Amino acid sequence: MRNVREKSILTFADDVSYISEARRLRHKFMVPMQETNRVCAITITPEERKRGCYDSPALQKALEALHADDLVVLKVVVDVGHVDSLNKYMCDETDQITRESEAYNHSIRSNILQGPPITNPEYLFQDVYFNPFLIQVMNALLDFPSVFNFLKGDTALRNTPDLRQPIHKDITFDHPQCPFCFIANVPLCDFTSENGSTEFWLGSHIRASGSEQHLSQAESLAGAQDTR
C-alpha cells in the first residue's frame, strides 16, 4: 500500500488472499473498488514542451488528480532513450547484486532496493532527475520550492511469480494529514501485473493516518515469503 499525501506513478497486481485483505482495508478507507483503476494522465502539448512548463488547465488537472487520488501520470516528459539506458545499466547491476547479497526489501525475495548510477555523469539525465514539468507540479502542490532529499530504486526481480511485498505505507512515522512530500516514480519498463507492477490504492490517502502503519512482523509475512 502506498500512502498518504505522497505522489507517484504506478499500477496493481492480483492475488486472492491479498485482494481479500485489500477489500477490507479499502472499505475502511472508503475507496470505491470500481474506481481504483482510473488513473489521471496528463499529456503534454508541443507548446508546453517548448516552454518547459504546463499551461494552467493542465496544471489544474494534475493538482485535482493528486488531491482526489494521490496519483497522477505525467506522460512523455522523459526521453525514452534515457529510460532505456538506465534500465540496461540497472538490470546488469541487479544480476550482480543478487549474486553477492540477500538484502531483499521487506525480506521478500521478489524485490531489492537499488540506487541509480548518480556517480556516473553519463547517466545524469536532466529530464530524469530535474524534470521541469514534475518540479512545476510539485511546487504547485506543496506551495513552496521542493527539496530533493531521497533517491532509490525498488527493483522487482525476475522469476518470482508467487511472491509479493506485504501491504505497507512508505512512511513509518506519524505524519501530517496534509500534503508535505512528493514521490516521483520513473518506471524503467512497462508496468504490468505479470512483471511486478506496484499496487496503488487511489484515494486511500484521504482517510489513512500514521496509526494505520504496521511494521512487517514474521507472522505478517507468512504466505508472502519464499518457502521453497
Strand order in space, largest sheet: 1-2
Strand element count: 4
Instruction: Label the structural class.
Output: mainly alpha
Q: Can you tell me the residue ranges where pLDDT is under 50 for at least 5 consecutive residues?
A: 1-23, 29-36, 218-228
Can you summarize the main beta sheet?
2 strands, parallel
Number of domains: 1
Number of helices: 6
Strand-residue proportion: 5-15%
N-to-C CA distance = 26 Å
Q: Give helix and strand order, one letter per element, not per position.
A: HEHHEHEHHE
What fraction, in percent, of the residue positions are helical? 25-40%
Radius of gyration: 18 Å
Shape: globular
Mean pLDDT: 76
What does the model show?
The chain is mainly α and 228 residues long. It contains six helices and four strands; from the N terminus they run αβααβαβααβ. It has helices at 16-29, 46-51, 56-69, 80-100, 126-129, 132-142; strands spanning 41-43, 73-75, 111-114, 153-156. The longest helix has 21 residues, at 80-100. The chain is globular and about 50 Å long. Helix 3 crosses helix 6. A two-stranded parallel ribbon has the order 1-2. The chain has one domain.
Put the structure in a nutshell.
The protein is built from six helices and four strands; from the N terminus they run H-E-H-H-E-H-E-H-H-E. By secondary structure, the protein is mainly alpha-helical.
